[in-house]
Amino acid sequence: MKKIAIILLTLISFVSCKNNAETEVSLEENRAKSYDQNDGYITMKGEFLYYADAAVFQTANEIYGVVIDENMHRLNAQVKPFKKEATEMVPVTVRVRKFEKPKNEEGWPYRVEIKDILKVEKPNPNKEDVIKLAN
Known about the structure:
Low-confidence stretches: 20-25
Oligomer: single chain
Structural class: alpha+beta
Helix content: 10-25%
CATH architecture of the domain at 27-120: Beta Barrel
Shape: elongated
Largest sheet: 5 strands, mixed, barrel
Mean pLDDT: 80
Order of helices and strands: HHEEEHEE
Strand content: 25-35%
Number of strands: 5
Strand order of the largest sheet: 1-2-3-5-4
Radius of gyration: 25 Å
């Protein structure tokens, strides 16, 4: 009887041991965990374009004007290597502060102020939505 109890106890101890196998965690998950979700910023994925003196951010549902500041210029510098045309939009993931535009100004109803740049992606080469300007 003691042998059965010892064998059963040994078997239970082996079965209850945790498997310490490392699981791969994606970079996006780590970035999402590193931000305080109560900071008032939202994470948005869309396409970014800065041309001349205007910057726009387009999501699947809406277009936003972008506040031109140091973070916007930093994003533009990261986007430039992916552009073949000056008017090509590049997919990005950013953390932003979204707010309404001033009533007396023209433009889209909402603006975004870029707070953090999470990801800049290569544009889809098969997508033909580049705006070409004629002289």
